[in-house]
Amino acid sequence: MNKTIVVTGGTKGIGRAIVEKFAKEGFTVLTCARSEDDNFPENVHFFKADLSKKNEVLAFADFVKQTVNQVDILVNNTGFFLPGEINNEAEGTLEAMIETNLYSAYYLTRALVGDMIAKKEGHIFNICSTASITAYTNGGSYCISKFALLGMSKVLREELKPHHVRVTSILPGATLTDSWAGVELPAERFIASDDIAQVVWTAHCLPNTTVLEEILIRPQLGDL
């Protein structure tokens, strides 16, 4: 039986790179995003969903369970960034960030991890950020949500290690995605999304007796 991977936010950026990497390696891939996308290999199954909404997270989980018999890897990648400071960001910014960047991972993990526990095997990746460990001006609610996601990852690691389910937090710095659109900086000042996908692949390929708990990745020339 082919291995399966679930990747949220898989139509662009880091999520897209992970989808394409694991599809190329022969995995059955299930992914979702708010906008339709049918430009995938045949071993990729797409479901349209806005994961800021709990009912759509659960609908995607149902789609996964109806499409495959097991999930070997879950990548909680969905997220977005709005600049601002706590004292002046728009009303509702914190709620939007928490719903998308944290709750989507929380609800989807709860929906899918039971089978991993039952078979005593599985790997969960949470795409966090350097903003999960470093507060910065104009980070506001984004930093809060990413700190919380890393905290959730740490809790999951403790809860799931007796069940032989691995949990890895990926903490990328500035990655060349749509979040940086319009910024006049050379590509070499960023991490390539494909590099993040390669890191996820490498971490997963370690023996099941070993886990990379946290992986901090920055551009070679440093943070922006």
TrEMBL record:
CDD domains: SDR_c (cd05233). InterPro entries: NAD(P)-bd_dom_sf, Sc_DH/Rdtase_CS, SDR_fam. Keywords: Oxidoreductase. The keyword Oxidoreductase applies. GO terms for molecular function: oxidoreductase activity. The keyword Oxidoreductase applies. Transmembrane segments: none annotated. Belongs to the short-chain dehydrogenases/reductases (SDR) family. PANTHER family: ALCOHOL DEHYDROGENASE. This is NADP-dependent 3-hydroxy acid dehydrogenase YdfG. It comes from Arcicella aurantiaca. The lineage of its organism: Bacteria, Pseudomonadati, Bacteroidota, Cytophagia, Cytophagales.
